[in-house]
Amino acid sequence: MVVGIVNFESKMKRLTLLSLFMFGITLAHSQEKTPTNKHFWYTLETQAAPERIWAVWTDVPNWKNWDIGLKDASKEGEFKSGSKGRIISLEGRTSKFKVVAFVEGKSYTYKTKLPLGSLHVRRYLKTDNGKTTFTHEVWFKGLTGGVFAKAFGAEFREMLPTVLSNVKDLAEANATH
Description:
The longest helix is centred in the last third of the chain and has 31 residues, at 145-175. This protein is globular. The protein has a 7-stranded antiparallel sheet. Strand 3 and strand 4 form a beta hairpin. The chain is an alpha+beta fold. The model is unreliable at 15-31 (pLDDT under 50). The chain has one domain: START domain (Alpha-D-Glucose-1,6-Bisphosphate, Chain A, domain 4, 2-Layer Sandwich). Helix 2 (50-57) packs across helix 3 (145-175). It has helices spanning 2-31, 50-57, 145-175; strands at residues 39-46, 70-76, 84-89, 94-103, 107-114, 117-128, 131-142. The protein is built from 3 helices and 7 strands.
């Protein structure tokens, strides 16, 4: 009987540790749902059809017309998974990008290499009960992700509401033509 009690106590300790571990994972994951300068996003709702938002988002040479942080952008060939292009910031910094995920008419993610890290931009649409929302998500990864987030994250986050408002205005204006 003593062996059974000791065994039970040992199992309870393991179960408690496992529960605490799972709680920690849940807590850490829930913290990811709060924007930081290293990972942030912004979402708007629009009256425009999802196709109109998609058309604005995938017209790379015209990104500069709605992304207030860009001086210019270009792409090589068709915009799809694996596509490559270049963006030039207002300050004149040129960066190459590659589309690393792509779902036609729904979402795409592009990646820009940074020294020992990367910047990822994901844009995606959701339609529910006739309402379309669109989200622009940004995150920094790699050894220098925190450094780049500290240098540029707050500025990029601050731009997002204006950037998405510009996309919305263009898509809604184009929907009437």
